Amino acid sequence: MPVVMRCPLVLALLLLVCAQAARADSLSKLPAALIDRLQLVAAVSLDTLDSDTREQLAQARRHVSDAVDRQLPDAEIAEAYGELGALYQVHSVYTAAMACYSNARTLAPDNFRWAYYHAYLTAVTGETEQAVVRFEQARRLRPDYPPVTLRLADAWLELNELDKAQAAYRQVAEIAGLEAAALYGLGQIAVLRRDFAGAIDYFERALALQPEATRIHYTLAQALRAAGQSEAAKAQQQQMGDRLPIIEDPQIESLQSLKQGSRVDFSLGMKAIKKRDYVSTRDAFARGLEREPDNVEARISYARALYLTGDKSRAKQQLEDVLSRAPSNVLAQYLLGILTEEEGDTADATGLYQRVIAQEPSHAGANFYLANRYYRDGVLDKAVQHYATTIASDSGNLAAYLPYTGALLQAGHKKAEILALAEAALKRFPEQPVLRYLLIQLQACPETVQACDSTAALEQAGELVERQPIPPHRELLALARAAKGDFDEAVSLQQALVSDAILMMPTEIKRLRACLSAYQDGKLPQPRELFTWQLLQAPPMRGVDVFRDYPTPKPY
To answer: Residue 527's pLDDT is what?
Structure first.
């Protein structure tokens, strides 16, 4: 018969051992491969934090432990350590945050974010000399990020290294979002150097930029009193407060936003997107929106994840929800237009694209899909207009050049204009053979037509055939021969293509025979009879490309 243990002390000790075992992970007991490189991150008591925050920290810690256990690449383990350190920092668990940042920097020494957060935390904890060293290291990684220079200036001022502080403040004193803080720092240096008139000027300029920065009134009062302006000093004293100038620092703002538990989920969602794990993205944004339901940017990202996991109906509902909260949200309107057109409702989709363009006339996406819509409907002048805007806004949109060329051809635009577009496209995308085919086709026209160059067309087509005598190259050579007036050779080349097509490309026979008939009549074929014609039509709608790849300035 088993013995039943009833001793409270023994039971308590067993529970304690079990609890310690549960807390043990690869952060507090590193594997041999990492023990000489990284610091231990001991599990600490989180009893003072709310249950949601404790769970978020536990989840982030498990994520690091899992990355270590799976022996992921250093960069991925560094990312996990850094994110955990950021969470620890915003919840004032500073010792653990320091160890996490140290590990992240060891594993990813070129990552500016972890270097900067490490330096910032060092300054927060009062280790100013070490903070200077770390801020300088961060600035070497990102000399183009001005807030780090301002943070350095503050640290040098605290260490009474006035020349260095002054030089650093002056570097950022005209940068939007940093001016008031820099002027405040320069004013403090002026006070220390007994330049009270200069200090008064700096403080007054800082207050003009940020009148809500009430701490400036205190130092301004000091400077006024030292300058003998007692009454003015009293007036400033009456307005004194504790609010320092606001520093626009996107990195630190991102850090502070982690205090909202939703941001942890959104951040995990964005990491999953990079791996194209859309199910995890969907679930992470769903969790975050439970805590922050009014975040319309996050709701758009959630809608995109729903679409990419096949749930288009719910994706549409989410986008409509966004527009009920923020009717002028351009990205939601655009994505809803794409989804609506994909469903076959072209009228409503057109209306949504037009709403986008009314707010952002140069919006490349809306202009492109509206151009496609007009092109399919035969409204060529509007199609040309919107394709032109698309390329002016996004010259890297390869998909726009071909239908734009087709619309110009059908609308009867001058050959010189169309050739210029084709040449610009080929220069932008030299690796795309279809653009070279198009250019040869456009050049191959009678010499009486302005801007044609049948000699160049013949040379280029001949080079293509010599390198690779495939049917498209041979067809271009036949066209170029005809453009030079050698119709007999064009007929011979085209007859061979027709013979080959009987066995290899039966669907092409009708088109190839139409070209042959034109050559036999001593004429050039119409553009729609050439193999490039289908490529010059509006491309089919592929909403998945937009929902997956269209950039968003603010995902949450």
So the answer is: 85
Rounded to the nearest 10°, the torsion over CA 245, 250, 255, 260 is: 90
40 is written with which tokens? 């231990």
The one-character DSSP state at 78 is H
- State the burial class of residue 12 (Cβ atoms within 10 Å of its Cβ: 0-12, 13-18, 19+): exposed
Q: What is the pTM of this model?
A: 0.59
Residue in the block written with tokens 């011979």: 492
d(CA 323, CA 77): 39
105, 100, 119, 41: which is closest to 75 by C-alpha?
A: 105
Whole-number Å distance between alpha carbons of 550 and 331:
9
The per-residue DSSP string of 197-226 comes to: HHHHHHHHHHHHH-TT-THHHHHHHHHHHH
Angle at 225 between CA 223 and CA 231, to 5 degrees: 125
Write out the two tokens for 435: 């653009």
- What angle do helix axes 162-172 and 179-192 make, rounded to 10 degrees? 150
Say if residue 261's pLDDT is above 80.
no
Per-residue CA distances from 67 to 37, 75, 81, 97, 307 (Å): 16, 10, 9, 18, 29
How far does CA 227 lie from the centroid of its chain? 51
Residue among 485, 421, 413, 476 nearest 450 (CA): 413
pLDDT in tens, 190-234: 999 999 999 999 999 999 999 999 999 999 999 999 999 999 999
Which pLDDT score is estimated for 29?
85
Which residues have C-beta within 8 Å of that of residue 376, sequence separation ≥ 6? 538
Which residue, chain included where needed, has tokens 């050698």?
486
CA distance 44 to 552: 38
What is the phi-psi region of residue 345: left when phi exceeds 0, alpha when psi lies from -120 to 50, beta otherwise? beta
Residue 204 phi, psi (nearest 5): -65, -40
Walk me through the domains of the chain, giving residue ranges and CATH numbers.
22-237 (1.25.40.10), 414-537 (1.25.40)
Give, to the nearest 10 degrees, the angle between helix 346-359 and helix 330-342: 160
The answer for 194, left when phi > 0, alpha when psi is -120 to 50, beta otherwise, is left
C-alpha span between 226 and 190 (Å, rounded): 12
Interatomic CA distance for residues 335 and 546, integer angstroms: 8
91-109: pLDDT as tens digits: 899 999 999 999 999 999 9
Q: How far is CA 16 from CA 7, 23, 26, in A?
A: 14, 11, 20
**Joined tokens for residue 319:** 């986008």
